[in-house]
Specification:
about 425 residues; alpha+beta; FAD/NAD(P)-binding domain; D-Amino Acid Oxidase, Chain A, domain 2; 2 domains; seven-stranded mixed beta sheet; 21 strands; disordered N terminus; binds flavin-adenine dinucleotide
Length: about 425
């Protein structure tokens, strides 16, 4: 059984993989490795599946992976909303309609689903394996090297300090990855986006649109989509790094501005938002770490690359990272080679995928959100034109599925409790 370590300073029991972070990337890679017979220790800062709001829109590519792992059905049972695509509205008029119903069934929709439901199901599946050790309520605070190779991490939490040694460490601890910074790898942050997003939920009172909407009515753009039981999630976009000054003027001032931006939900905002803590600010940036692997360490998900919320790519890419990294990690265990050079079998091709996604997101951002060159007059015409081209249909498939060559390597599975379902796309 995967052991965990003794007190810091002693050598801990050797496990095959230590994954840091139980988000979508960390839990998925953990499950895939466990199903392939590996021993995995998962270190997670939080002691529950409840996380700060981190988005709920899943793309078809991510849904397909979760379905193939048997996770999607049970996660959906907790409540979710199927959505038909994205819409850009300018002054109440639809100027761009990304209709997912044009994609091949059954993966022809987006899904709005609370992350806890997905994370809870993934974790429940991990718990079925004897090779699984969860060190929750503990955060990685130190990283040790032996002969230049990452050989151990120290996790500090409820049970004191634990030192965990492993064949290879997988950093899946998100956009502000501690593991990445302990390894001396820069985030590669690029402030290319003009906006941050202030997220909050209000009761929908029956007004549940079937699309993720980006609405512009002269002021700051607003994102809306159905979320949870009878609620609408609202994302108010505001110029980068201006929220601090607004918040300093108090919650009533912020509420006035939000009500002006979403007059249709003004009553709900007035009643429902009581304190600034009811609002979650997303500092929007893109990042791509210059290095995704060192000897003994691999970065996946947001810790390697972070995305703007435009086009809802983060969870999808995190899940696909896990699926793409899985066969390389298993091969590295078989060959006892976790050098950065070996791990490049994953990082090389995956970097190309991520660069492509980043280019598309930048184009989407300038088309939909820019307040500069693209005026309210040019944007509708351009958006309409773009959406009718075959290139746009290709881009829509790319946004929806990512790299379609990435498939679960189920031939590596050693368990029998459940077979991977047929993948359809
Ligand atoms: C407000 C917001 C809205 C978003 N909306 C969407 C959306 O609609 N659709 C979409 O696809 N993406 C969205 N995203 C992005 C998406 O949430 C991320 O891309 C995705 O969660 C990345 O998954 P991950 O597993 O790499 O990292 P995370 O989900 O960030 O998971 C990292 C995990 O590591 C843990 N951790 C952190 N530090 C440590 C440590 N030192 N030790 C141990 N554990 C640690 C954290 O507790 C967390 O559980 C949004 C993000 C935000 C912030």
């Amino acid at each position: 059984m995967a052991g965990w370590a003794g007190e810091d300073g002693e050598d801990g029991a050797q496990t095959d993989f230590c994954v840091v972070g139980a988000g979508p990337a960390g839990l998925t890679v953990t499950l895939l490795l466990l199903r392939s017979g590996a021993r995995v220790t998962l270190v997670e800062r939080s002691a529950s599946q409840t996380r700060a709001y981190r988005g709920e829109i899943l793309q078809p590519g991510g849904l397909r992976i979760l379905d193939a792992l048997g996770v999607l059905g049970p996660a959906r049972a907790g409540g979710c909303h199927e959505l038909d695509g994205f819409q850009l509205l300018e002054g109440g008029r639809v100027v761009l309609d990304s209709d997912y119903r044009r994609l091949p069934a059954p993966w022809n929709h987006l899904l709005s689903i609370p992350q806890e439901q997905v994370l809870g199901e993934l974790l429940a599946r991990c718990r079925r394996y004897r090779g699984f050790t969860l060190v929750d309520g503990s955060r990685v605070t130190r990283l040790h090297r032996r002969a230049g190779r990452v050989s151990a991490v120290v996790a500090a939490g409820r049970g004191g300090q634990r030192r965990i040694t492993a064949h290879c460490f997988v950093a899946a601890d998100g956009r502000y990855s501690k593991t990445r910074s302990l390894a001396g790898i820069a985030a590669g942050r690029d402030d290319v986006f003009e906006h941050d997003v202030l997220w909050f939920k209000v009761p929908a009172h029956g007004r549940l649109p079937r699309r993720v909407r980006i609405e512009r009515a002269g002021g700051n753009p607003v994102l809306t989509y159905p979320s949870g039981a009878g609620h609408v999630q609202i994302g108010w976009l505001l110029p980068h790094r201006t929220y601090g000054a607004l918040a300093a003027r108090g919650v009533e001032h912020v509420k006035d501005l939000i009500c002006a931006a979403v007059p249709q939900y003004a009553d709900e905002v007035r009643r429902g938002v009581r304190a600034l803590t009811d609002l979650t600010l997303l500092d929007v940036f893109a990042s791509c770490a210059p290095q995704w692997a060192q000897d003994g360490l691999l970065l996946i998900g947001d810790s390697a690359h972070t995305h703007s919320p435009v086009g809802a790519q983060g969870i999808n890419l995190a899940l696909q990272d896990a699926v793409a990294a899985h066969p390389v990690l298993m091969a590295s265990l078989r060959r006892q080679d976790a050098t950065a050079r070996f791990l490049q079998r994953y990082t090389g091709p995956r970097r190309r995928d991520i660069r492509r996604v980043m280019r598309i997101q930048r184009a989407q951002s300038s088309l939909m959100l820019s307040t500069g060159r693209l005026t309210g007059t040019v944007r509708p015409a351009l958006a309409g034109l773009v959406s009718r081209t075959p290139l746009y249909r290709q881009i829509l498939r790319q946004i929806a599925f990512g790299n379609r060559q990435i498939r679960i390597s189920s031939q590596l599975f050693t368990d029998t409790y459940e077979s991977v379902e047929q993948e359809c796309v």
